[in-house]
Specification:
Number of helices: 24
Radius of gyration: 24 Å
Shape: globular
Number of strands: 2
Order of helices and strands: HHHHHHHHEEHHHHHHHHHHHHHHHH
Mean pLDDT: 83
Oligomer: single chain
Distance between the termini: 25 Å
Strand order of the largest sheet: 1-2
Length: about 500
C-alpha cells in the first residue's frame, strides 16, 4: 500500500497559515499548505477525502467549506493541531455562513427544522441530547458485534479502520485530534437536558438501577482477575439490557439520571474490555458513548472516568496529545470535588501521554502531583468503581513513563516497587507490570533478569485472557531478539520466546 504524504509541524507555525485558520479560510489553508510542504492537490485530496475538483474550486474561492463534518474531515486529514482550531458549538460560535441559521428566530417567526444527520456523521457535530446518547450507545454496540467477524493477523484483530484503508473506502474514523477536542469541549459546556419518559412501559425503580449497577460491579471484579476475554461478551449483553430499559420503560427525572449513569459506566467498561481484547476502534466508540451518557446523567466523575480511558487509548494506540487533552479536561471538571484518587488517576494518564510524546519534564511533574494526591487517601467524592489507585499503581505508571522516555534504570526501579506492592486479585495488572519490567531489564542489557521476570509474566498470561498482556510480551520477545547475550541467557531467551509464541492469539 502506497504511504500518504504528511504535513510537517513547521507548516502550522507559519503565521499566514494560522491567520487563514483563524479566518476559516480553508481555501487559503489548502493552498498555503501545498506550497509550504510542497504537495499536489491530488495529495491533499488523498489526505482529506475531498475530491481534487472540489479542492480546486475551494482554493479559487468558488466553493466555501462550511459543513462542520467536512471541516473536521479536512483539518483532521491534514493533521492540523487541535489547539489551533476551535470547532463551533451550537449557539456559541457558528461558522460564518451558518450564523444566520443559528440565530434565534424573532417572535412569531417559524424556526427552521434542524438539519438531519446520519448515524455515521462525525460524533462531535451531533447534538448532546438524550436521544443522541441512546443512538451512540446503540452504534457502539453494533460496532462491537461487527468486530466479532473482523479478520485477525499475527498481532490480533484487524481494525475496521485498517480494513477500510486497505479497501480504499471512505469509512468515518473514530474521533481524535480536532474531533476529540470538539467532543470534550461540547461535554464541558452543553447543558444536560431532562431525562424522563412517560410511556406505556413498566415503571423503573431505583432498586432496579442498583441491581443493574451491581451486575456491572461484579463484571469489573471478574475482569481484574481473569482479563477481558472472560467478561467482554457479558458486558456487551448487559449494555444492551440497560439501553433497552432506557428506551422502553417509564421513569422520573431522578431515576432517568441514575439509569444514564449505569449506561455511562457500562459503556465505558465495555470499552475498556474491548481495548484489553485488542479491539481499539470498538473501544473508542464505547468510550465516546460513555462520555455522552455521563453527560446525560450529569455525573462529572463518570465523564472524567470515560476521559481517563480515552487517554489510555490515546497514548497506547493513537495520538499521545489526545491523552493529555482528555486527562486535563477531566481534571478541570472534577477540580471542585474531593476526589484525590480520581485526580491522581487522570494525572497518571496525562503523564503517560507526555512520556509518549517525549515530554519528560511534564511527565515527571504530573507523576509527582499524582503521587501526592494518592498519598492523601480516598476522598469523599472518589467513585466506588475506582479501586486501583494506590502506591503500587503510581510506581507502575511511573515505570511505564520512564520506559517510554528511555530511562531504563528508573523504569526497572519503579516496576520493582510496583510488583512488590499488594494488589489483591489483580492478576492481569500484576502480569502487565511484570512484562513491562522484563522489557526494561532487556533494554538495560540484563537479559537474565528479563527472562526471569518474563517467565513470571507468561505464567500469568497463560491463565488470564488479555490481548494487551500478550502484546506486551510480544514486545518483550522483540527486545530479547535485539539484545546481545551470553550463551546461558541466549538459551533462556529462546525458551521464553517459544513460550510467548505458544500463547493463544
Amino acid at each position: 500500500m502506497v504511504s500518504l504524504p504528511s504535513v510537517p509541524t513547521r507548516v502550522w507555525q507559519d503565521e499566514a497559515v494560522r491567520s487563514a485558520l483563524a479566518d476559516w479560510d480553508f481555501g487559503q489553508v489548502s493552498r498555503m499548505v501545498r506550497q509550504l510542504v510542497p504537495l499536489r492537490q491530488e495529495d491533499v485530496a488523498a489526505l482529506t477525502g475531498l475530491s481534487q475538483s472540489y479542492l480546486s474550486m475551494l482554493e479559487c474561492g468558488d466553493r466555501r467549506l462550511t459543513d462542520v463534518s467536512r471541516v473536521v474531515q479536512f483539518l483532521t486529514g491534514l493533521g492540523t493541531p487541535p489547539d489551533l482550531v476551535r470547532l463551533p458549538l451550537p449557539g456559541i460560535s457558528p461558522l460564518p455562513d451558518a450564523a444566520a441559521a443559528a440565530r434565534p428566530a424573532a417572535s412569531g417567526q417559524a424556526v427552521a427544522a434542524p438539519e438531519q444527520v446520519t448515524p455515521t456523521a462525525p460524533d462531535p457535530v451531533l447534538p448532546w441530547t438524550a436521544d443522541r446518547m441512546l443512538t451512540a450507545l446503540r452504534l457502539a454496540h453494533v460496532a462491537d458485534n461487527t468486530a466479532d467477524w473482523l479478520p485477525t493477523d499475527a498481532n490480533g484483530p484487524v481494525s475496521a479502520t485498517a480494513m477500510s484503508d486497505a479497501a480504499g473506502t471512505d469509512t468515518p474514523r473514530p474521533a481524535s485530534g480536532i474531533a476529540l477536542n470538539s467532543m470534550i469541549q461540547s461535554w464541558d459546556v452543553e447543558q444536560a437536558e431532562p431525562l424522563r419518559r412517560a410511556t406505556t412501559g413498566t415503571r423503573v425503580s431505583l432498586e432496579l438501577c442498583g441491581h443493574l449497577q451491581g451486575t456491572l460491579d461484579e463484571l469489573r471484579v471478574m475482569d481484574k482477575g481473569s482479563g477481558s476475554g472472560a467478561v467482554a461478551d457479558l458486558a456487551r449483553a448487559h449494555l444492551a439490557l440497560v439501553v433497552r430499559v432506557l428506551e422502553r420503560s417509564t421513569y422520573d427525572e431522578v431515576t432517568g439520571r441514575k439509569l444514564a449513569a449505569v449506561a455511562a459506566d457500562t459503556a465505558t467498561q465495555a470499552g475498556w474490555f474491548a481495548f484489553d481484547a485488542g479491539r481499539t476502534d470498538t473501544a473508542r466508540a464505547y468510550m465516546l458513548a460513555g462520555l455522552r451518557a455521563a453527560h446525560a446523567a450529569a455525573d462529572d466523575r463518570l465523564g472524567a472516568g470515560a476521559l481517563s480511558y480515552l487517554a489510555i487509548h490515546g497514548y497506547s494506540s493513537g495520538d499521545p496529545r489526545d491523552a493529555v487533552r482528555a486527562a486535563e479536561a477531566g481534571r478541570r471538571r472534577i477540580a471542585r470535588l474531593d476526589a484525590p484518587h480520581l485526580a491522581a488517576t487522570l494525572l497518571t494518564r496525562q503523564a503517560r501521554g507526555h512520556a509518549a510524546a517525549g515530554e519528560g519534564e511534564a511527565a515527571r511533574r504530573a507523576l509527582g502531583e499524582a503521587s501526592e494526591l494518592c498519598a492523601r487517601g480516598r476522598g469523599e467524592d472518589d467513585p466506588h468503581w475506582l479501586y486501583w489507585m494506590n502506591e503500587g499503581e503510581i510506581h507502575g505508571q511511573s515505570g511505564s513513563a520512564h520506559l517510554a522516555l528511555g530511562n531504563t534504570a528508573r523504569a526497572v526501579e519503579s516496576f520493582g516497587h510496583a510488583i512488590q506492592a499488594e494488589r489483591a486479585g489483580e492478576r492481569r495488572t500484576h502480569g502487565l507490570f511484570l512484562s513491562r519490567a522484563a522489557q526494561a531489564h532487556a533494554r538495560a542489557g540484563d537479559l537474565d533478569a528479563a527472562c526471569a521476570t518474563g517467565d513470571e509474566a507468561v505464567s500469568i498470561a497463560e491463565t488470564v485472557q488479555s490481548a494487551r498482556l500478550r502484546e506486551h510480551l510480544r514486545d518483550l520477545s522483540a527486545d530479547l531478539r535485539r539484545g546481545g547475550s551470553s550463551r546461558r541467557s541466549g538459551v533462556n531467551a529462546r525458551v521464553l520466546t517459544e513460550r510467548i509464541v505458544a500463547l493463544a492469539p
